[in-house]
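The methods section describes the discrete structure representation at length, but only in general terms. Each protein is reduced to its one-letter sequence and a matching series of backbone shape codes. I believe one specimen quoted in the main text would settle the matter. An entry of this sort, consisting of the sequence and the corresponding backbone structure tokens, reads as follows.
***
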Amino acid sequence: MVWAYTLMVLVAAPVLAWRLAASGLLRKTPRTVVYRGGMTTSWLLALAGAAVLWWEQDTSPAQVGLIGLPPVAGVAWSAGTLAMLLLGLGLFGLLLKLLRRGESPDVLHLIPETRGERWLFVGLALTAGVTEEFIYRGIALTSLMRLPGLDGPWGPWLAAALVALAFGLGHGYQNVMGMLRAGVLGFVLAVPLLLSGSLLPGMAAHAVLDLTLLARSPASGRRHAATPQPDLP
């Protein structure tokens, strides 16, 4: 069941994301509906993953990174990961400006404009930080590392790259640069797990990054549609 779940995350999810992008449905849907739908879907997927792990009884919480770190180490890993994410985001923002490329209409549509939307977006950011790390860097990455050939010294990093590729493709509502950016940031988010053994720094950094992007977003995305805006991993 874990492998079926992993294939769904790494293959089916990107396909569905691409179909959603091609349909243009996302930008036609009210933001509040998108936010609530995103939170609901993410938590259901995470709970389904937890249920699969519980049912099979062959993977402990520690094996998917659900272990704590000493306070100082935890803060250091979270801060370092966040710094790398912000650096990567800034470099991609610069690249977009150099190429004179903007964000996709779907990304611009998702920028909250009202106080109510911003509060819902906070919930979405926290949800993404927790659930996406558990789903992608926790379950999917752990599953791939068990494959023959991926259990050697470089195997975990190759597995992280494969998960990052799927993570990037899963952001199919963005343009090509947006998917590339999500993939690179997804790989960065795997680093603290592979080096510290804990998923928590990645969860914290992911959530804080999304909240930081909320603070940097304009009050009205439509009035600034011509300006490339950073988007969530």
